[in-house]
Amino acid sequence: MFSVTCVAPVNIALIKYWGKRHEELILPINDSISMTLSTNELCAKTTISASEGFQNNRMWLNGEEVPFEENPRLMRCLKEVHRLALANGCKKISPSWKIEISSHNNFPTAAGLASSAAGYACLVFALARLYEIPVNDELTTVARQGSGSACRSLYGGFVQWHRGALADGSDSVAKQLVPSDHWPNMHVLILVVNDLRKKTGSTQGMQRAVKTSDLIQHRVDTVVPARVEKLREAIQKRDFNTVAEITMKDSNQFHAIALDTYPPCLYMNGVSHAIISFVHSYNELMGGSQVAYTFDAGPNACLYVLEEHIPKLMYAIQKVFPNDLLDSKEYLRGLSVPKLTTEDIGYQNKIEQLGIEPKNSFKYIIHTKVGEGPRELKEDKS
Question: Residue 162 to residues 34, 141, 148, 173, 373: CA-CA distances in angstroms?
Answer without folding.
Answer: 12, 11, 11, 5, 18
